[in-house]
Amino acid sequence: MLKGMIAFALLYLYEWRYLKRHARKRRTYYLVFGCLTSAFLYSLLVYYTRESPGAGTLLLRLFGPLQNVLVPKTVVER
Predict the structure, then answer these.
(1) What percent of the chain has pLDDT over 70?
(2) Sign of torsion, CA 26 31 32 38?
(3) Is residue 52 scored above 70 in pLDDT?
(4) Domain boundaries, given as residue ranges, for the chain
(5) The dihedral of CA 41, 47, 49, 54: what is its sign?
(6) TM spans, by residue (predicted)?
(7) Are 7 and 39 contacting, i.e. CB atoms less than 8 angstroms apart?
(8) In what helix (H) or strand (E) does residue 77 lie, and over which residues does it extend?
């Protein structure tokens, strides 16, 4: 995780220098740093929730009983 934080810090610094050097508008700063912050928060979320069940498991838990009611399992006779 430390490597990821260092990588994001370097990205922030690189983008900051680029935007300053090319005299970009304030709106551009918000867009760039907003995207970088969103990516950082997403990577933190993925890192801390990697042990939790995935989206497929959660959807099956939520809609599994409804699926069993609507689509009953067919019995194959031999």
Answers:
(1) 94
(2) positive
(3) yes
(4) 2-50
(5) positive
(6) 29-48
(7) no
(8) none
